[in-house]
Design goal:
40% helix, AB_hydrolase_fold, lipid droplet, lipase activity, Lipid droplet-associated hydrolase
């Protein structure tokens, strides 16, 4: 049996002060001790929670830290430091697509890092959704991510290192968060296959622009509803998704169970239409001011963020760390390359 429960502060971890969790009742009944419990040992990672952010319910995943990484002091000694990675997805903004990637990052860091990931508003289905007709704007997604960082910062001690990891248009969102909160302890931004400018002029932007029109969004949404009605059994729909997309079982399950809902698909397409209009001019000023914090990672065959963008960043911002993928990863790296990307990001964190 699952219950909605507001976890009280006696679990002694910041996330419980503002989360609503869906947890098996038996897990909450296993201990009657009043001794403070370390949630990293109480729960199997990741912990699923629904956060109320600015009045909106946001599905999240959390990998609790089981210790602390160390950093070098000016005297050359090792000093423990809280490290928090905040993952901002692309579009579709379903955080469950990032589980293999984030689990690998957590493992690579020996569990000594808190990892949080949040889905985009309107990009998930379930009991937490109160209005399936609501379309969320790009600016609302920005404000949601800023509010999440604000809440995280309130709960961790002074000196905590925050890392933002953005994928695709999530890289643009991460850039906006940094611009809004430059003094919030953000030490790194990992911009993975970033779409931070001229997105409508990319090969995929030109090919898919008609898909984002209102009339087409309605047709696609209706088609998805029909498919869910015809293939109502979850295993059948998952199998069909896997057959037609080539996605592995776990990713096909996310697509079938969470993405293929009329309201979710229409929100994804609506957000994409706004991206085409808003993500045009690169915020060079913010990048220049925080150049030492950025790691840009580009693909060789990426049609959302072409290789020309990599060369442009190298020329425009030589002080930034711009890397070109040599492992054959695609733009949607979460579909098949999550572990490989996780090993890279985990190493970048170790190298901080």
């Amino acid at each position: 049996m699952l219950i909605h429960l507001f976890i009280r502060p006696q679990l002694h971890h910041p996330i419980y002060r503002f989360s609503t969790l869906r947890l098996p009742l038996r897990k909450l009944m296993t201990s009657t001790s009043t001794t403070p419990v370390n949630p990293a040992t109480l729960f199997k990672s990741p912990v699923r929670a629904v956060w109320n952010v600015r009045g909106e319910n946001v599905p999240t995943l959390w990998w609790p830290a089981k210790g602390q990484l160390t950093t070098k002091t000016p005297k050359g000694t090792d000093q423990p430091v809280h490290t928090v990675l905040f993952m901002i997805p692309g579009n579709p903004g379903l955080i469950d697509y990032y589980i293999p990637f984030l689990q690998t990052v957590h493992d690579k860091c020996d569990g000594k890092i808190d990892i949080f990931g949040a889905s985009h508003l309107g990009h998930s289905a379930g009991d937490h959704v109160t209005d399936t007709s609501r379309m969320y704007t790009l600016e609302e997604q920005v404000e949601s991510k800023i509010a999440i960082l604000d809440r995280l910062r309130e709960q961790y001690p002074t000196g905590t290192r925050f890392i933002l990891a953005g994928h695709s248009m999530g890289s643009w969102l991460a850039l906006r968060v940094l611009k809004a909160r430059p003094n919030h302890g953000i030490e790194r931004l990992f911009e993975l296959f970033p779409t931070i400018h001229r997105i409508a002029d990319t090969p995929n932007g030109r090919k898919m622009q008609n898909l984002f029109k209102p009339s087409v969004r309605s047709i696609v949404g209706g088609t998805v509803s029909t498919l869910r009605f015809i293939f109502s059994a979850p295993p059948v729909l998952r199998s069909i998704v896997g057959l037609f997309t080539g996605q592995e079982s776990d990713m096909a399950q996310v697509t079938a169970q969470q993405l293929l809902h009329s309201s979710v698909v229409k929100n994804c397409l609506f957000l994409a239409s706004q991206e085409m209009e808003a993500i045009k001019v690169m915020d060079k000023e913010t990048i220049k001011q925080h150049a030492d914090k950025f790691v840009f990672y580009y693909g060789k065959t990426d049609e959302w963020s072409p290789i020309e963008n990599y060369y442009e960043m190298q020329k425009e911002f030589p002080q930034c760390k711009s890397l070109l993928c040599e492992q054959g990863m695609v733009h949607a790296f979460v579909l098949g390359h999550g572990e490989a990307m996780g090993l890279l990001v985990g190493q970048w964190i170790h190298d901080m």
